[in-house]
Design goal:
Elements lengths: L1 H13 L4 H20 L9 H14 L2 H20 L27 H8 L7 H16 L3 H5 L6 E2 L4 E5 L5 E5 L2 H10 L22 H16 L5 H14 L4 H8 L4 H4 L6 H12 L1 H8 L1
Antiparallel strand pairs: 1-2, 2-3
């Protein structure tokens, strides 16, 4: 089985999956291998019931998200082996996956809060311009922070207002660049960057900006002024939710965010009932009458 795992991880690497994803894949498959050894089970002769027992073991020994991820890795592993005709039977095929309900995003700033937040950077400084351009870009495009800090200058097409993005699994997509984000990017890039770097966003040392640096700057420099808490990833959530609130289609939001599975994007629709309830309380004539009684 060790050879199968090694070959599978090499294959996943050729597909462009990140080191972090490959690390999770490796841990999940090695845990399964150790499970088989302790129970003296043969990898070649496993049944669906054996895999069902392993599911129970994962659920008992890991947090719900861990059990979900580890079994998902194993199911992909077996599916790949079966497609390559390296096994004659896929014991995961008829087995229901471990269910994990994705938690709702938390601490998403409102449109009004974001308007105040985006005014905080000091535009008389280079760092302030950089931060405003970066925040506007995340809010406009919904890019992950890793995608933002990985941007190169030739990824920006100001003429057509498009951004080329290399997302998870090294998948490439093009997303629209809003007018306001383009405006602040052009202001920020008005001073030519050092010739030795192609990065769009630079640190104070003229190196490519890191995710940790920007996250710490948000936490320590800007949020104390605003009096609320959120993360850089909250800006991505805000982009999606505010688009949905303003009647954008869920499929368009899926494409913008680079979600492979629509169900990942649909999590934002679970946040809308509260908005509907608030709108009903604020706008329905009978609710207004009740408040006046």
């Amino acid at each position: 089985m060790e050879k199968f795992i090694e070959n599978y991880l090499k294959y996943r690497k050729t597909l462009g999956f990140s080191p972090a994803t490959l690390e999770i894949d490796g841990r999940a498959l090695r845990k399964f291998h150790a499970y088989l050894k302790t129970r003296q089970l043969s990898f070649a002769g496993l049944t669906t019931q054996d895999l069902k027992n392993y599911q129970s073991y994962l659920i008992a020994s890991l947090q719900p998200i861990g059990a979900y991820k580890y079994y998902s890795v194993l199911a992909c592993f077996y599916r790949n082996l079966y497609r390559r005709q390296q096994i004659l039977f896929n014991p995961c095929r008829d087995l229901e996956p471990i269910v994990w309900k994705r938690p709702l995003p938390r601490n998403i700033p409102s449109q009004e809060q974001l308007e105040k937040f985006l005014e905080l950077p000091d535009l008389t400084t280079k760092l302030g311009l950089r931060d405003r351009a970066l925040f506007e870009l995340v809010y406009s495009t919904g890019l992950r922070l890793s995608e933002i800090t990985g941007l190169d200058l030739d990824d920006l097409d100001f003429k057509n207002r498009l951004v080329r993005v290399r997302g998870k699994g090294n998948k490439e997509r093009f997303v629209p660049l809003g007018k306001t984000a383009a405006f602040y990017l052009i202001r920020y890039l008005g001073v030519p960057p050092p010739a030795e770097t192609s990065a769009v966003f630079l640190s104070s040392c003229a190196a490519r900006l890191s995710k940790n640096t920007m996250s710490e700057r948000l936490k320590k420099t800007y949020l104390p002024q605003l009096g609320i808490k959120f993360t850089m990833h909250s800006l991505r959530h805000a982009c999606a939710l505010h688009l949905l609130q303003n009647k954008a289609g869920i499929r368009h939001i899926q494409e913008l965010l680079g979600h492979t599975d629509l169900s990942t994007t649909q999590i934002y629709t679970r946040l809308l009932p509260l908005d509907l309830k608030q709108a009903h309380a604020a706008g329905h004539p009978r609710e207004k009458e009740a408040r006046n009684q």
